[in-house]
Amino acid sequence: MKKFILLWISIVLLISLAGCNKGQSGTPAGSSGGVSGNLTVWMDNDDWANAVIAAFTKKYPDVKVSYQKIGNVDARGKVSLDGPAGIGPDVFLMPHDHIGLAVADGLCEPLDADIQAKYTAAMLDASIKTCTSDGKLYAVPISTENIAFFYNKDLLGDNPVPTSFEEIMAFAQKWNNPAQNKWALRWQVDDAYHNYFFLTAFGMKIFGPNMDDYHNPGFDSPEAARGIDFFRSLRSIYDVNVSDADWNGTVAAFQNGEVPFTITGPWAIADARKNGVNFGVTKLPAINGAQPRCFSGNIIVAVSSYAKNFDAAFAFADFLASPEGQTIQFEQTGKLTTLKDVSLVGGISADPYLMGVAEQSPYADPMPIIPEVNQMWDALKNLFTFTWDNTLTTTQAQAKAMDTYDTALKLAGKTR
């Protein structure tokens, strides 16, 4: 009997220790007590990583952090291989549209209830939704970006900043000179990410109202048709083929001070500033009185399901997402915070360009997180490419988009 009792106690102790190993209910967020050991993190910027790790280890002196530079777009694929092999990270970054496959493949450990409650309240709703599945938070968004409307103040002159595409078209009638390749508005007309907003302005819902129904991509909807018709009407003020509307002919030209208007994102700010362009940024112009919704993208931080130190991993993810962590991120990378209250991140409120991008953020739909988003991009691009160059009618381009999507699904082993 005595041996049985001792064996039972041993089993109970082993179960208790196993439960504590993941740290789900151990150290409260924000507390340094009990967090120790080695931690491996994958990040994509040396200066940012070094600054974050220095601040984190000051708060958690008993944690030794090892850093590897891994691009966020490459991380999910590497974790799927390195995690099971025991050489993966405890914490890694990825774009939010990778999370559908990451969760399906069991790569992300759900974050604890305290972290989920804190950031659900503090962060942009759209950003948090990108990391949530079946009511659980599998990652935390730490930066967000979306396109916006960029304008050259010097070339605009005394004219007011356009707030609608109708006003842009009126300005273009005076500014344009086709013989000199002079166009008021230049943007990448074939890129799905940049042109999605033309569809939403007319009510198109990609993958249904919740953006999660891969059976209903919406490329062939009447709303999409009206959006494409308006999009192709803009050929009258920017009469070049898709091949001539590349980065160099559009955004780079704006960054060199040659173009009054462009549609791009925060990634274009640094070179425009470096070149001394006197410019501003604001939300996208209205279309037929409607404020269009664009895509947004988030970079998210996840704890690997193969992590060796869950306590430290959760603490590091929490730190990256905190106001202190996001302030360091902004100082080192210039990225826009996911926190609702941008004043919590020092310096952002004083940046007129990022604040201009943020004006569009409430009108941004996070890219869908369902795995089938990988089959979406080429199909969506077809709508814009073939109609802009007038290769296909709107109806034909819609049929082409649906066929491209269905073919891609079949190659992935699925059917609509």
Briefly say what this structure is.
The protein is an alpha/beta fold. Helix content is 43%, strand content 14%. It has 17 helices and twelve strands.
The CATH superfamily label of the largest domain reads Periplasmic binding protein-like II
Task: Please count the beta strands (DSSP E, at least 2 residues each).
Answer: 12
Estimated helix fraction: 40-55%
CATH topology title of the largest domain: D-Maltodextrin-Binding Protein, domain 2
Order of helices and strands: HEHEHEHHHEEEEHHEHHHEHEEHHHEHH
What labels describe this entry?
D-Maltodextrin-Binding Protein, domain 2, single chain, 4-stranded mixed beta sheet, alpha/beta, 2 domains, 416 residues, 12 strands
Question: Could you explain the architecture of this structure?
Answer:
- With 416 residues, the protein is an alpha/beta fold.
- The protein has 2 domains: 29-145 and 297-366, D-Maltodextrin-Binding Protein, domain 2 (3-Layer(aba) Sandwich), CATH 3.40.190; 147-296 and 368-411, Periplasmic binding protein-like II (D-Maltodextrin-Binding Protein, domain 2), CATH 3.40.190.10.
- It has 17 helices and 12 strands.
- It has helices at residues 2-21, 46-59, 72-85, 99-104, 113-122, 125-129, 153-156, 165-175, 192-200, 222-233, 251-255, 269-274, 310-321, 323-333, 352-360, 376-388, 394-411, and strands at 37-43, 63-69, 91-95, 132-133, 136-137, 140-146, 148-152, 185-186, 261-264, 279-282, 294-303, 364-366.
- Helix 9 (192-200) crosses helix 10 (222-233), helix 9 (192-200) packs across helix 16 and helix 16 (376-388) runs antiparallel to helix 17.
